[in-house]
Amino acid sequence: MVKYLAKRIFYIILTLFIVATVTFFLMKIMPGTPFANQQKLPPAQQAQLAAQYGLNKPVWEQYLLYLVGLLHGNFGVSYQFSNQPVSYLIGSRIWVSIQLGAEAMVVGVLLGLIIGAIGAIRAGSWVDTSATIVSILGVSIPSFVLAVLLQVYIGLDTRILPIAGWGGFEYTILPMLALAAQPLAETARFMRTEMVDVLNSDYIELAKAKGLSKYGVIYHHALRNSLIPIVTIVGPLAVNIMTGSMVVENIFSIPGIGDQFVKSIMTNDYPTIMGLTIVYCLMLCVVLLITDILYGIIDPRIRITDSK
Amino acid sequence: MENKDDVLEVRNLKINFKTYAGDVKAIRDVSFDLKKGETLAIVGESGSGKTVTTRSIMGLLANNAVVAGGKIEFHDQNLLKLGRKQMDGIRGRDIAEIFQDPMTSLDPTMKICRQIAEPLIIHKGMKREKAMAQALEMMKLVGIEDAEHRINNYPHQFSGGMRQRIVIAIALVNRPEILIADEPTTALDVTIQAQILRLMKELQEKINTSIIFITHDLGVVAGMADRVAVMYAGKIVEYGTVDEIFYNPKHPYTWGLLSSMPTLDTKSETLPSIPGTPPDLLDPPKGDAFAARNKYALKIDTEKQPPFFKVSPTHYAATWLLDPKAPKVTPPEQIIERQKHFAQLTKKTQKQNLNKHINEQEEQL
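^ Those are the sequences you sent over. The predicted structure of the assembly is below.
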């Protein structure tokens, strides 16, 4: 297990390096400079600023300098957000995004599992049909549309929950729902399909032949086996939430990194773009690592052992 | 129960499956008995209703199945009339089942000791440790080597043969009165088949259970069963002791089945087969269902279903050929060979008995 983890961490670092490199050069290809669109600075001052941040050097030199900075744990200084260090900028906002993302993930996946399982157990009934409709809606409605609908019909009309901003838990509910819809729908869809398969399998037949009750069969044998493929989609779902959060945070004026990411791209804030890309990439790698470990816990056939 | 020796009596069982096209009459008036400690083999081709029959005994019919008539009597109660809870209580305790494919019939994510112990925990309310200890005993009994170390293994760590042993352990852990084995060796390779069959016979003697053995492999039947019932198109067409069915078959369908089984004496290049396919059970034929494929069919076969004719007190066959008014037909060559063999066998055993008798008398002198 230790050996496996060490290997995985090495690969994560390699992935981060490749992503950082590709992003760096892509970013440089983008038209515009960080200062061209700001307060209409005269060209002389723009050149002075470029020199100050080392932007007049050849691209490969900038790249090497950036890498050296990264190795020292230095993400650079933001051009836009009042010259704050990028690490401070991210550090002060990331927990908001993680809280929102984790809430959406947990609620989405758990509700999805429950809805999917009920659909499978009552396959063909009206319960199943309505569950299917819910998941089709969830998959096809983009999170930003749902976000606006929630704001209008729940935030504005009933005024039960705040429309936007970031305060206590109640502020997280609407954006969380907007983000959770897609994972919920995907999970429900996968869970239903998988569980229908599992419920028709030979070992469920054997479990029934043992004299287990209907719910005993589901609880002891069907659930765990249905979960195996669900773990596979947790990674992509996390990506879904991360990308969704960029728009949803904007709509709900939530001070998270998603909102910051969008703004930094619009203003060519190179160090912030780089820093956030690396952070997003790292979060995704960690989620994937966790799902791979989860696999082993749920399915003994792919358990990682050091013996071989 | 009509007979004291019986553990199970199936009477006039009729089962239909509701489909969009109409009712498929899968089981059409099936009756049989299972005696204490015996092995009854039910043979027939795919779709003849073997499995549906056993499913109905287990109370595990598909949702679209309708029991259209009959009864299944076990301990003076009709299993077809029991509620779900009561049936859960019988399944796995009094009646257990072994399935065809050991590769898929074990839960891949549960340790095998837990899987073997589960019926004990459900039916006997046993504490975990005690159930586990008994599961270990059972593993040893079915011949899993190094059972103490393998108790915490998962199914994927065992070979097909070993997995079928585990399935047998699960089925027999509560010492059921009836064991239903639905093609238990079909998915195994031949050398393993023999081991599993031997194990089943051994255990049957140890725990004195009755076995209903479903198969389409007549070769397996010969070594395993005491009695054989041949099913065709949802009906039993002939039943009798193993020797009676193998060496003195009366129904043309049984002739066909036996002729299409190669033996060491088979000389011809091609293996005979039964022409045609079984009838559509959405609309079963009025007369004998086998008539269309039967070259010995009589006119009456297409008009009226044949009743069972008695061949011996243990041997019955449903074919008009046994009617006193029916013309005499000569069965296929293979079957005549078998009947000759049967005659030789009986002579040999008689001779052996005689020799034994003489020896005994000589010893006495």
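DSSP finds eleven helices and no strands in chain A. The CA atoms of residues 73 and 96 of chain A lie 22 Å apart.

Shout if you want it in another format.
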